Each structure stands twice: as structure tokens, then as C-alpha cells.
Amino acid sequence: MEILQSIIAQVDTVRLPLYAVTVTALPRPDTPLLLILHWHGFRRDERMPAGDPLTRRRPVPGSALQLNARWWALEEIDAAMLDAAWQLGAWDMERHARRACARVGAPEQETVECRQAFGANPLAPGDESHLLAEAPDRSEMMHFAAAKGYVRWLFRPVRGGVWRTVAEDDTLRPDGGREPPCPVAPRSGQGRRGVPLVYRLGRVTRIVLP
User: Fold this and answer.
1) Burial zone of 156 (CB within 10 Å; 0-12 exposed, 13-18 middle, 19+ buried)
2) What's the pTM value of the predicted model, to 2 decimals?
3) CA distances from residue 82 to 71, 147, 156 in whole angstroms, order as listed
4) Strand 62-67 relative to strand 131-134, pairing
5) Half-sphere exposure for 187 (CA within 13 Å, toward CB)
6) Structural contact between residues 155 and 94, judged by C-beta atoms closer than 8 angstroms
7) 3-state class (DSSP) for residue 75
8) pLDDT (tens digit per residue) in 60-100
9) Which of 40, 101, 137, 189 lies most in the core, judged by the most C-beta atoms within 10 Å?
10) 210 Cβ partners below 8 Å, 6+ apart?
11) Residue 78 near residue 154, CB atoms below 8 Å
């Protein structure tokens, strides 16, 4: 499962710092994964009215990639994401199990979060300007998730990311990464829905003064 390799390839191509990395999966073995890279950066938008240059700048679109690697248990995705989060210097990695939102009485916030997990813009349905997607099954995945639920992983990288200047972590190399292998093992089971499973990776052994 080449999650880390896919992230590094995108970083080398886009050449912008990353804010966060997410992977979303359906609760069914051997289904596609959706990897989304959230960039920190802005681009000039000629469609905006002339005037203050700052008003003509828009956030750089995120990158959405469909990964078709075969998997049979959530722990396999945990292991691949832990490896990526560890080598890219993340302080922790979170796994969220979400309920189906297409049910009677479901809060609107759950629908918004489901759409965001699959790269949709809940404020402007049909507008894809915020995302560059190479994920042909993304729409079908989102509709299945609305009916059956989904699982989402998240980490914020230091190496190649925007967090490098503020990271306080004694496990990091000067470039913000770490040497493999990751010493944290995946945990079995999905955990409780609505309660994230957090894998702590970083460590501070010295006193940090304000």
C-alpha cells in the first residue's frame, strides 16, 4: 500500500508545503482508498475583479488520488498511514469511524463532514475548483459512505509541511522527518464511532520555555 510514496511524489510535483494528509475508506475490504493532500499556498485568480492583489488570490486546490491497493483489514491501512505519518514527522495520527449520514435524524454536520471527507464542497455542490482529483470512483464512494458509513485517517506532516517552524518534537531529524521503521503498532478493532483513535508518535523530553 504505497501511501507514503504517493505523498512524496505529489510533494515533489506540487512543491508547496502540506497542511494535512487524509485517507478515507469504506467499511468494506478491498475497496478503493481516497488520499487527499491539503496544501498551504495561494494562486492568482484572474476571474476575480481587479483591485487589491490579495483579493485576487485563492487557496491552491487540494489533490485527491484514488488508491486501488488491495486490503482486508483496517489495521493494514493503519500500518501504511502510521509509516507515512512517522517518516513525515507528524506528532500523531488519528483514525475516525463515522456513521452513515443518510439516516433519519442524522445531524446536518455529519452530512457536511461526509462530503468533506470525499473532497466535495458542501458550501457549493458541484463546484470542483477547490480540488484536483484523479479519483474516478469518488462520487460512488461518497454515496456508499452516506448509506453505510466510512473511516477517515488524518495527520499533519512536518517534513514537507507547514508545521516545521513550530514543531517541538525530540524524535525529529533536522529535515522534520524520522528514520523508519515506525515503532508504533496498529491496534485491532474499529473503536467507538465518534471517538477518534489517536496514535501518538512524537515525544518531548526537555522543558520547553514560552
Assistant:
1) buried
2) 0.88
3) 15, 28, 12
4) parallel
5) 12
6) yes
7) helix
8) 889 999 999 999 999 999 999 999 999 999 999 999 999 99
9) 101
10) none
11) no
